[in-house]
Design brief:
mainly alpha
């Protein structure tokens, strides 16, 4: 999974730099946007992907993948607490309904707390969702100098530069059958799935 994310980020980097260069909009990120660029890269693109990949490698995907997309449940209270965003009744109802759904999927009474792999896998995916939420809260608080579009190729480049060495150190080089079908799927993951 780490190699898949690294390859996906590398393809997205090439596509995004080409797209911006073609449109004459390629620019270095302004110094004022570096904190959010680093935050998005480390929390979402690296942290989320690493923890979610690791966690989903320990447990069956099934209901666990739902944990990865609980991010909005954590953004709402964090934004209210840290950014003083109004906690409207609709937002409270949304979070409560979301948490009720989460509890119904992950009934603590039926969860196998003795299985270390299951606990660690689910915890890793949940922490990944927290990291993504933290990134979103930072994005909301950030005072933009440029635009998010200007930063995206730099984020995918930095992600590639961080994840590739991690993949090299932590997992063996994958044996890849470079069939046309695999190449198309990889390009789909990298271009529409990540860059677009």
């Amino acid at each position: 999974p780490i190699w898949a994310v690294s390859l996906r980020a590398a393809i997205a980097t090439v596509a995004l730099f080409a797209l911006q260069a073609t449109g004459g909009r390629l620019a270095r990120p302004p110094r004022g946007d570096l904190p959010v660029l680093i935050s998005i890269t480390l929390l979402h693109m690296v942290g989320f992907n690493l923890l979610a990949s690791w966690g989903l490698g320990l447990v069956p995907t099934g209901r666990t993948v739902v944990l990865a997309y609980t991010t909005p449940l954590w953004v709402t209270p964090a934004a209210a607490l840290l950014l003083r965003e109004p906690l409207t009744s609709r937002r409270v109802v949304g979070v409560v309904v979301g948490l009720a759904g989460l509890v119904s999927l992950f009934n603590p009474l039926t969860f196998d707390w003795s299985d270390r792999r299951v606990v660690l896998g689910n915890l890793a995916v949940l922490v990944a969702a927290f990291l993504w939420a933290a990134s979103i809260v930072h994005i909301r608080a950030h005072r933009w100098v440029s635009t998010p579009f200007v930063l995206i190729p730099w984020e995918t480049l930095l992600t590639t530069l961080i994840l590739t060495p991690i993949a090299l150190v932590s997992t063996p080089l994958p044996h890849i059958d470079w069939s046309p079908r695999f190449v198309v799927l990889l390009l789909y993951l990298g271009i529409p799935g990540t860059a677009v």
